[in-house]
Amino acid sequence: MIRIHVYAVTPESPPQIAQNSSHIGWDGIQQVSVDGYKCLAKNGFSFYIGRIYRSIGIPDIHGIQNIKNARAAGWTKVSGYIFPCLRNGCPRPRDQIDAAIKRVQFEGAQIDMLWISVRQNEWPADIAYNRLFILELIKRAETMGV
């Protein structure tokens, strides 16, 4: 169960979240060094979600390197996300998962969980097609043990 406590916000009193029920983390595509992750950890950040596949249909080598850098800095909660390619000519959903996971493994990175970025305004209007596309991504990831 997640409990979030919200308080009135004023310039003198910023919002507070109970420390025992929350974690601060981020996802990002900027390159961050090992020292950068150490600095983030010193400032309360404890998890990172790195992009491992880009919407242009290729693995994200910078995001994968960030995952390795976060691990090297001692982070234990590190996940990856894919931004599926939806344009004509993009690989099939299963092939996108294959490319992402195989590149993560090839680079020696380790992710705890795989997230799939689904942004409403970037998907076709065909809901049935979208559902099948997402289910194929999920099924392939499960088959690969992610």
How would you write the strand order of the largest sheet?
1-2-3-4
What is the CATH top level name?
Alpha Beta
Rounded to the nearest angstrom, the distance between the terminal CA atoms is 24 Å
State mean pLDDT (0 to 100 scale). Answer: 87
Largest sheet: 4 strands, parallel
Structural class: alpha/beta
Give me the CATH fold name.
Answer: TIM Barrel
The CATH superfamily name is Glycosidases
Number of strands: 4
Question: Quick gist of this model?
Answer:
By secondary structure, the chain is of the alpha/beta class. Helices cover 36% and strands 16% of the residues.
Q: Can you give a write-up of this model?
A:
By secondary structure, this protein is α/β, with parallel strands linked by helices. It has one domain (23-143): Glycosidases (TIM Barrel), CATH 3.20.20.80. It has four helices and four strands. The protein has helices at residues 34-42, 61-72, 93-106, 127-143, and strands at residues 24-28, 45-53, 77-82, 114-116. A four-stranded parallel sheet has the order 1-2-3-4. Helix 1 (34-42) packs across helix 2 and helix 3 (93-106) runs parallel beside helix 4 (127-143). The longest helix is centred in the C-terminal third of the chain and has 17 residues, at 127-143. Residues 1-9 have low confidence and may be disordered.
